Amino acid sequence: MHTPLKTGAFLFLLAAQVQAKFNQTSTVVPASQTTSLAASATAAATNTTTAALNATVLDCFLTLPNNPLTAEGLSTPFLLQPPCSQTVATQQSFAEAAIYDPATGAISIYHPLVLDAGKTAGAPPVVPTLPAGAVVALWFGFNGGVLQLVDVNGLDANASPVLKGAGCINGLQGVQGDVFGQVSWCNAQPWFTAANAGIASGLTVIPDLGVDNLGNACPTSRSFEITDACPSDNVPTQYLLLADGSTAQDTAANRAANPTAEVINNASDEALLTNIIDPLIGCTPFLAPSVDNPGTNVPALALSELQASAKQASPIGLVPLNDPDTLLTGSGVVSVEKTNQYRLGVNQPVVSAGADSGALDTYCADMVSVAPAFLKGFETVFSNQASPDTCVGTNLFTFLCERYLMSLTQLTCPPAAFQPVVCQLNGGGAATSCVITLANSTTTTNTSVTSVAKVANFTTAPTTLAATTQATLATTTQATTTALATTASTTTVFVEVVSFFVFFLSLGGAPPGVQGSIGSFIVLEEVFVDLPSAASAACTHQFNSCASLAGSAFSGSDCLNQLNSCNGVASTASPTASSPGTVTVAATVPASAASTLAGVVQTPAAGGPGNCPAGPTMTVTACTGTFYSTVTVTASPGVAANTLAARHLHGHLKARNF
Questions:
Q1: Rounded CA gap, 171 and 184, in Å?
Q2: For the chain, what are the domain ranges?
């Protein structure tokens, strides 16, 4: 995936991807979705369903042929069922096959084609030649919320004799509706058993990691330099998307025949390492021959996990017990059994005492102790690279820093005694500037975008908001809300928010507006089908703003209390009007922060509504008040680094995860 790609297609959908994972719900395949699969690789794949496509759907179904681990099955397109489509970024699905030859110890990689049901492949998939006795396994990745595997009769991995016979795992086996989320696999454990036996006998040789440009060991998928809340997930597969909405394998021949095709790919931990980070820091990933694109060597999840298992030194980033992928779907509670099932699918040891315990505190502490130094060491290199997702960070450096902070919060890590990484966010929640302060080192700062906010030119102690709302809004306050303590004066910022949902506690800024329409609520660029989910996302954006400004005026704990209160209100929100209303909210930011800003840029005497730039403390459509000063908002390197709360993700449309 490190070949030249369209950045927009690369889809590291962290913020969006997170929401779908937290909103995992079991779904039943409609009975109307009956499928007629092609008998050969050259036959057109068709689907008898007439269901309409829906770009807002985040949970999708992928139909596998009856013999998915054979040459015929691998070269038969896997069908993405309506209402999902490969033309929709957050519905794109991917497959990777690893082929192990027990006679020679050789590994090769094949990329089965995922195609929209009812379409014909843009080019006939290559039919692989499998060695005698080959062991074949499949891994799947997804850019949306939950991808469920089904057979040609619509039966899932728990009910289908075909899928069970192929060793397909979608979640905790035997528990109907339980899913990992974006990832799944078939025959993974037997494949790793065979490959590990070859490694132990010397038949299969795993390359050494080598060293990066700073002289350190190159990272693996289990290195805390790059692990996140959901490590070892998704695949580095990519396809060609043609103008007619069909897909084709990404081969040299298909690129030559379709020069205007778009390359689409899976936002994955594996691809982030092998296709982006490794080349930038002077490392080479473990590659194997591509069966579908002869003459090339490619990375793969199976290869990365074999190398990590053989070469990664302590500390080792194994899947933790509270990885969102391994929480029970129905209850959200920790499950050792499900964690073990996930670990076995990516060649990791099961949970046990000591280093393999999956304990939260240890995993979090290792992230904090390892990742910041790595990111700081390559700050210049990463800062000069485009961000995989500008909704997370404005360049690769700020993306990686914010991904790290978001992961700590998503895992519910305890606050670090000292948090080396502090990021300044813009109104959309993307990191524009990050500061890394290591013990006994010089602070480094990277700023890629100047954020601007309008701040009222008066300072007061915290005040109680007295604002009028329209009765048609789903606005409410919680009587049991804990008072948020402050220890210093604050600056009040008045904003007008257009929203279906308004929450009046506003430390660090008001929640962004929930707009759109009934059944399609929009928070910034994210789309939700119900108001509680959208409102919860707005609460999280508010928390991100609050956490980025926490310090002497209010603490990270205050921000977390506010988030909990906001989510409590959001969980019961229901729209009572067909369109959003407008309300004025007084947002509270630290006066100390305002006094240390980069200076007044403009001092208009503004009365009434006016255009309001999106600053790190808010996202609004208009400002209102009497007098305003426009100031440049920057992060102060020394401001409350040890009290800054880790950012909370508004769900894992892990989301991407990366």
A1: 7
A2: 1-352, 452-633
